[in-house]
Amino acid sequence: MRTHGAKLRACPNVIATGVGYKVTADRRTEALSVVCSVSQKVPLAALSERDRVPTALDGIPTDVMPTGVIRAFANTGRLRPAPGGSSIGHRDITAGTLGCVVRQGGQVMILSNNHVLANSNAASPGDPILQPGPYDGGKLPGDLIAELHQFVPISFAEPASDCGFARGVLALLNAGCQVIGSHTRYRAYRIQAASNLVDAAIARPLSASDVSDEILEIGRIQGLGRGELGMRLQKSGRTTGYTQGEILQVDVTANVQYGAGQTAQFTDQLMAGAMSQGGDSGSAVLNDNKQLVGLLFAGSDNSTIINRIEHVFSALNLSL
User: Is the pLDDT reported for residue 191 higher than 50?
Assistant: First the structure.
Protein backbone atom coordinates (compact mmCIF):
# COMPACT_ATOMS: atom_id res chain seq x y z
CA MET A 1 0.00 0.00 0.00
CA ARG A 2 2.77 2.43 0.91
CA THR A 3 4.52 1.60 -2.38
CA HIS A 4 1.57 1.77 -4.77
CA GLY A 5 -0.95 4.07 -3.03
CA ALA A 6 0.20 7.37 -4.51
CA LYS A 7 0.30 5.93 -8.04
CA LEU A 8 -3.22 4.52 -7.67
CA ARG A 9 -4.60 7.82 -6.35
CA ALA A 10 -3.18 9.56 -9.42
CA CYS A 11 -5.69 7.61 -11.55
CA PRO A 12 -8.79 9.61 -12.56
CA ASN A 13 -11.64 9.35 -10.04
CA VAL A 14 -9.57 7.43 -7.46
CA ILE A 15 -10.04 9.40 -4.24
CA ALA A 16 -8.97 6.88 -1.58
CA THR A 17 -7.04 3.64 -1.23
CA GLY A 18 -7.10 1.11 1.56
CA VAL A 19 -7.06 -2.57 2.48
CA GLY A 20 -10.38 -4.43 2.56
CA TYR A 21 -12.17 -7.61 1.59
CA LYS A 22 -12.74 -8.03 -2.15
CA VAL A 23 -16.35 -7.82 -3.31
CA THR A 24 -17.36 -10.01 -6.25
CA ALA A 25 -20.87 -9.94 -7.75
CA ASP A 26 -22.03 -7.74 -4.84
CA ARG A 27 -20.89 -10.34 -2.29
CA ARG A 28 -17.99 -9.90 0.09
CA THR A 29 -15.31 -12.57 -0.17
CA GLU A 30 -12.69 -13.50 2.42
CA ALA A 31 -9.86 -12.40 0.11
CA LEU A 32 -7.95 -9.28 1.16
CA SER A 33 -7.51 -6.71 -1.58
CA VAL A 34 -6.22 -3.22 -2.26
CA VAL A 35 -9.46 -1.22 -2.52
CA CYS A 36 -9.59 1.87 -4.72
CA SER A 37 -12.52 4.16 -3.88
CA VAL A 38 -13.74 6.17 -6.88
CA SER A 39 -16.10 9.12 -7.15
CA GLN A 40 -17.97 7.19 -9.84
CA LYS A 41 -17.40 3.90 -11.63
CA VAL A 42 -16.39 4.35 -15.28
CA PRO A 43 -16.65 1.58 -17.90
CA LEU A 44 -13.26 0.00 -18.52
CA ALA A 45 -13.50 0.75 -22.24
CA ALA A 46 -13.74 4.48 -21.46
CA LEU A 47 -10.37 4.49 -19.70
CA SER A 48 -6.95 4.54 -21.30
CA GLU A 49 -4.57 1.73 -20.35
CA ARG A 50 -2.55 3.99 -18.04
CA ASP A 51 -5.68 5.20 -16.22
CA ARG A 52 -6.96 1.73 -15.35
CA VAL A 53 -6.54 0.28 -11.88
CA PRO A 54 -4.43 -2.89 -12.32
CA THR A 55 -6.14 -6.17 -11.43
CA ALA A 56 -3.38 -7.02 -8.95
CA LEU A 57 -0.39 -5.41 -7.23
CA ASP A 58 2.51 -7.63 -6.18
CA GLY A 59 0.15 -10.60 -6.34
CA ILE A 60 -2.56 -8.94 -4.22
CA PRO A 61 -5.90 -8.43 -6.02
CA THR A 62 -7.39 -4.96 -6.35
CA ASP A 63 -11.01 -3.88 -6.09
CA VAL A 64 -12.80 -0.71 -7.21
CA MET A 65 -15.56 0.66 -4.97
CA PRO A 66 -17.75 3.64 -5.97
CA THR A 67 -18.15 5.86 -2.90
CA GLY A 68 -18.99 9.26 -4.37
CA VAL A 69 -16.96 12.36 -3.50
CA ILE A 70 -15.71 12.30 0.11
CA ARG A 71 -16.64 15.51 1.96
CA ALA A 72 -15.98 16.73 5.46
CA PHE A 73 -19.46 16.46 7.33
CA ALA A 74 -29.05 15.64 14.05
CA ASN A 75 -29.36 15.75 17.63
CA THR A 76 -29.99 19.46 17.37
CA GLY A 77 -31.49 20.79 20.61
CA ARG A 78 -29.97 22.64 23.55
CA LEU A 79 -28.93 20.18 26.24
CA ARG A 80 -27.41 20.77 29.67
CA PRO A 81 -25.47 18.81 30.54
CA ALA A 82 -24.61 18.26 26.88
CA PRO A 83 -23.87 14.61 26.03
CA GLY A 84 -21.84 13.14 23.20
CA GLY A 85 -23.86 13.02 20.00
CA SER A 86 -25.42 16.47 20.42
CA SER A 87 -25.10 19.54 18.17
CA ILE A 88 -22.11 21.82 18.72
CA GLY A 89 -19.98 24.26 16.77
CA HIS A 90 -17.67 27.24 16.62
CA ARG A 91 -19.62 30.50 16.33
CA ASP A 92 -18.59 30.89 12.66
CA ILE A 93 -19.59 27.44 11.36
CA THR A 94 -22.94 25.68 10.85
CA ALA A 95 -23.01 22.72 13.23
CA GLY A 96 -21.26 19.45 13.94
CA THR A 97 -21.29 16.84 16.67
CA LEU A 98 -19.96 16.87 20.22
CA GLY A 99 -17.94 13.67 20.20
CA CYS A 100 -17.32 12.92 23.85
CA VAL A 101 -15.82 14.25 27.06
CA VAL A 102 -12.07 13.70 27.48
CA ARG A 103 -9.35 14.94 29.81
CA GLN A 104 -6.16 16.86 29.21
CA GLY A 105 -3.92 17.18 32.23
CA GLY A 106 -6.88 16.39 34.45
CA GLN A 107 -9.07 19.11 32.95
CA VAL A 108 -12.41 18.21 31.37
CA MET A 109 -12.50 18.89 27.61
CA ILE A 110 -14.96 18.49 24.74
CA LEU A 111 -13.59 16.48 21.80
CA SER A 112 -14.73 17.04 18.21
CA ASN A 113 -13.21 17.92 14.83
CA ASN A 114 -11.00 20.87 13.91
CA HIS A 115 -13.56 21.86 11.27
CA VAL A 116 -16.32 21.80 13.91
CA LEU A 117 -14.61 23.56 16.82
CA ALA A 118 -11.82 25.50 15.07
CA ASN A 119 -13.41 26.39 11.71
CA SER A 120 -10.79 24.50 9.65
CA ASN A 121 -7.76 26.32 11.16
CA ALA A 122 -9.44 29.77 11.01
CA ALA A 123 -10.20 30.02 14.74
CA SER A 124 -8.13 31.09 17.73
CA PRO A 125 -7.90 29.64 21.24
CA GLY A 126 -10.55 31.26 23.41
CA ASP A 127 -13.13 31.52 20.61
CA PRO A 128 -16.71 30.77 21.71
CA ILE A 129 -18.22 27.32 21.15
CA LEU A 130 -22.02 27.05 21.03
CA GLN A 131 -24.35 24.19 21.93
CA PRO A 132 -26.40 23.74 19.86
CA GLY A 133 -24.33 24.84 16.88
CA PRO A 134 -25.29 28.07 15.06
CA TYR A 135 -27.21 26.25 12.31
CA ASP A 136 -29.43 24.69 14.97
CA GLY A 137 -30.21 28.01 16.61
CA GLY A 138 -27.24 28.39 18.95
CA LYS A 139 -26.56 32.06 19.76
CA LEU A 140 -24.33 34.12 22.00
CA PRO A 141 -24.41 34.54 24.90
CA GLY A 142 -27.17 32.15 25.96
CA ASP A 143 -25.84 29.01 24.25
CA LEU A 144 -22.15 29.49 24.99
CA ILE A 145 -20.90 26.19 26.42
CA ALA A 146 -17.12 26.28 25.98
CA GLU A 147 -14.08 28.06 24.60
CA LEU A 148 -11.74 26.62 21.99
CA HIS A 149 -8.67 25.29 23.77
CA GLN A 150 -6.47 23.53 21.18
CA PHE A 151 -6.64 22.10 17.68
CA VAL A 152 -4.40 20.07 15.39
CA PRO A 153 -3.82 22.20 12.25
CA ILE A 154 -4.96 20.64 8.98
CA SER A 155 -2.40 20.69 6.18
CA PHE A 156 -4.28 21.52 2.99
CA ALA A 157 -3.07 20.65 -0.50
CA GLU A 158 -2.03 23.54 -2.69
CA PRO A 159 -3.73 23.89 -6.07
CA ALA A 160 -2.08 22.92 -9.34
CA SER A 161 0.67 25.31 -10.29
CA ASP A 162 -0.47 28.50 -12.04
CA CYS A 163 3.06 29.67 -12.75
CA GLY A 164 3.25 31.16 -16.24
CA PHE A 165 6.83 30.01 -16.76
CA ALA A 166 5.89 26.45 -15.76
CA ARG A 167 2.96 26.49 -18.17
CA GLY A 168 5.26 27.60 -20.96
CA VAL A 169 7.80 24.86 -20.26
CA LEU A 170 5.03 22.26 -20.13
CA ALA A 171 3.62 23.46 -23.44
CA LEU A 172 7.03 22.96 -25.08
CA LEU A 173 7.50 19.52 -23.52
CA ASN A 174 4.04 18.34 -24.54
CA ALA A 175 4.48 19.70 -28.06
CA GLY A 176 7.72 17.75 -28.33
CA CYS A 177 5.99 14.58 -27.13
CA GLN A 178 3.31 15.06 -29.78
CA VAL A 179 5.89 15.53 -32.54
CA ILE A 180 7.71 12.30 -31.72
CA GLY A 181 4.46 10.38 -31.34
CA SER A 182 4.69 9.82 -27.59
CA HIS A 183 1.45 9.54 -25.62
CA THR A 184 3.15 10.93 -22.51
CA ARG A 185 1.89 14.32 -21.32
CA TYR A 186 3.22 16.46 -18.47
CA ARG A 187 1.32 18.37 -15.79
CA ALA A 188 2.51 20.82 -13.12
CA TYR A 189 1.67 20.31 -9.47
CA ARG A 190 2.57 21.93 -6.20
CA ILE A 191 3.45 19.30 -3.65
CA GLN A 192 1.42 19.15 -0.46
CA ALA A 193 3.63 19.82 2.56
CA ALA A 194 2.34 16.90 4.62
CA SER A 195 -0.44 14.40 5.00
CA ASN A 196 -2.74 14.49 8.01
CA LEU A 197 -3.60 11.89 10.61
CA VAL A 198 -6.43 13.70 12.39
CA ASP A 199 -9.09 16.39 12.07
CA ALA A 200 -9.40 17.08 15.79
CA ALA A 201 -9.83 19.83 18.37
CA ILE A 202 -10.79 20.26 22.01
CA ALA A 203 -12.75 22.94 23.82
CA ARG A 204 -12.81 23.75 27.54
CA PRO A 205 -16.34 23.88 29.00
CA LEU A 206 -17.24 26.97 31.02
CA SER A 207 -18.27 24.51 33.71
CA ALA A 208 -17.63 20.77 33.93
CA SER A 209 -21.27 20.39 34.95
CA ASP A 210 -22.35 21.63 31.50
CA VAL A 211 -21.20 18.40 29.81
CA SER A 212 -21.91 14.72 30.35
CA ASP A 213 -19.71 11.62 30.11
CA GLU A 214 -22.66 9.87 28.43
CA ILE A 215 -23.13 9.49 24.68
CA LEU A 216 -26.72 9.63 23.47
CA GLU A 217 -28.19 6.14 22.93
CA ILE A 218 -24.84 4.50 23.77
CA GLY A 219 -23.94 5.40 27.34
CA ARG A 220 -20.50 5.70 28.90
CA ILE A 221 -17.28 4.90 27.08
CA GLN A 222 -15.61 1.73 28.38
CA GLY A 223 -11.97 2.46 27.59
CA LEU A 224 -10.06 2.63 24.32
CA GLY A 225 -9.90 0.04 21.53
CA ARG A 226 -8.07 -0.36 18.24
CA GLY A 227 -10.04 -0.41 15.01
CA GLU A 228 -9.57 -3.63 13.01
CA LEU A 229 -10.87 -4.80 9.65
CA GLY A 230 -14.38 -6.23 10.01
CA MET A 231 -15.00 -4.66 13.45
CA ARG A 232 -18.59 -3.64 14.19
CA LEU A 233 -19.03 0.06 15.00
CA GLN A 234 -21.59 2.37 16.58
CA LYS A 235 -21.91 6.12 16.86
CA SER A 236 -24.35 8.85 17.85
CA GLY A 237 -24.32 12.00 15.72
CA ARG A 238 -26.16 15.29 15.34
CA THR A 239 -27.80 14.41 12.01
CA THR A 240 -28.39 10.67 11.81
CA GLY A 241 -28.49 9.90 15.53
CA TYR A 242 -27.56 6.34 16.48
CA THR A 243 -26.19 4.23 13.64
CA GLN A 244 -24.12 1.09 13.30
CA GLY A 245 -21.56 0.04 10.74
CA GLU A 246 -18.46 -2.01 10.08
CA ILE A 247 -14.84 -1.23 9.31
CA LEU A 248 -14.59 -2.06 5.61
CA GLN A 249 -11.05 -0.79 5.04
CA VAL A 250 -7.98 0.03 7.12
CA ASP A 251 -4.76 1.84 6.19
CA VAL A 252 -6.86 4.24 4.12
CA THR A 253 -5.33 7.28 2.43
CA ALA A 254 -8.06 9.67 1.29
CA ASN A 255 -8.31 13.10 -0.30
CA VAL A 256 -11.06 14.99 1.54
CA GLN A 257 -12.82 18.10 0.23
CA TYR A 258 -13.41 20.90 2.75
CA GLY A 259 -15.22 23.39 0.52
CA ALA A 260 -13.91 26.67 -0.91
CA GLY A 261 -11.55 24.63 -3.10
CA GLN A 262 -9.66 23.18 -0.14
CA THR A 263 -8.57 19.55 -0.16
CA ALA A 264 -6.54 17.69 2.46
CA GLN A 265 -4.99 14.25 2.36
CA PHE A 266 -5.37 11.94 5.35
CA THR A 267 -3.41 8.74 5.94
CA ASP A 268 -3.91 5.69 8.19
CA GLN A 269 -7.67 6.20 8.34
CA LEU A 270 -10.53 3.75 8.86
CA MET A 271 -13.36 3.50 6.34
CA ALA A 272 -16.85 2.28 7.20
CA GLY A 273 -20.00 2.18 5.11
CA ALA A 274 -22.86 4.69 5.00
CA MET A 275 -23.35 5.35 8.72
CA SER A 276 -23.18 9.17 8.67
CA GLN A 277 -24.27 12.35 6.93
CA GLY A 278 -23.27 16.01 7.00
CA GLY A 279 -23.41 17.33 10.57
CA ASP A 280 -22.25 14.02 12.08
CA SER A 281 -18.65 15.23 11.92
CA GLY A 282 -17.01 14.94 15.32
CA SER A 283 -18.95 11.87 16.43
CA ALA A 284 -17.16 9.43 18.71
CA VAL A 285 -16.99 5.97 17.11
CA LEU A 286 -17.12 2.95 19.42
CA ASN A 287 -16.97 -0.82 19.00
CA ASP A 288 -19.61 -3.23 20.33
CA ASN A 289 -17.88 -3.22 23.72
CA LYS A 290 -18.32 0.56 23.92
CA GLN A 291 -14.59 1.10 23.56
CA LEU A 292 -13.65 4.31 21.77
CA VAL A 293 -11.87 3.48 18.50
CA GLY A 294 -12.18 6.60 16.35
CA LEU A 295 -13.36 10.12 15.58
CA LEU A 296 -15.68 10.49 12.59
CA PHE A 297 -14.79 13.43 10.37
CA ALA A 298 -15.80 12.91 6.74
CA GLY A 299 -17.75 10.75 4.36
CA SER A 300 -19.70 10.37 1.16
CA ASP A 301 -23.04 8.88 0.17
CA ASN A 302 -21.58 5.40 0.64
CA SER A 303 -18.69 5.79 3.06
CA THR A 304 -17.62 7.15 6.43
CA ILE A 305 -14.01 8.18 7.15
CA ILE A 306 -12.73 7.89 10.72
CA ASN A 307 -9.54 9.05 12.46
CA ARG A 308 -7.91 6.36 14.60
CA ILE A 309 -8.46 7.43 18.21
CA GLU A 310 -4.87 6.61 19.17
CA HIS A 311 -3.67 9.33 16.76
CA VAL A 312 -6.20 11.82 18.18
CA PHE A 313 -5.22 11.16 21.79
CA SER A 314 -1.50 11.31 20.96
CA ALA A 315 -1.78 14.58 19.01
CA LEU A 316 -3.70 16.36 21.79
CA ASN A 317 -2.25 14.53 24.83
CA LEU A 318 -5.66 13.26 25.95
CA SER A 319 -7.04 10.61 28.29
CA LEU A 320 -10.54 9.48 29.20
Answer: no
Where in the sequence is the domain holding 94, given as residue range(s)?
Answer: 71-154+197-316
Whether residue 52 contacts residue 11, with contact meaning beta carbons closer than 8 Å, is answered with yes
User: What are the pLDDT digits (tens) for 86-123?
Assistant: 999 999 999 999 999 999 999 999 999 999 999 999 99
Give the span between the Cα atoms of 12 and 5, in whole angstroms. 14
Tell me the backbone φ, ψ of residue 313, rounded to 5 degrees: -65, -35
Query: According to DSSP H, which parts of 36-182 are helical?
Result: 114-117, 164-179
Residue type (1 letter), 195: S
Phi and psi angles of residue 226, each rounded to the nearest 5 degrees, phi first: -115, 125
Measure the CA–CA gap between 254 and 156, rounded to whole angstroms.
Answer: 13
| 239: CATH | 2.40.10.10
Among the listed residues 12, 109, 73, 86, the one whose alpha carbon sits nearest the alpha carbon of residue 300: 73
More confident residue, 49 or 152: 152
What is the Cα–Cα distance from 242 to 234, expressed in whole angstroms? 7
% of the chain residues with pLDDT over 70:
88
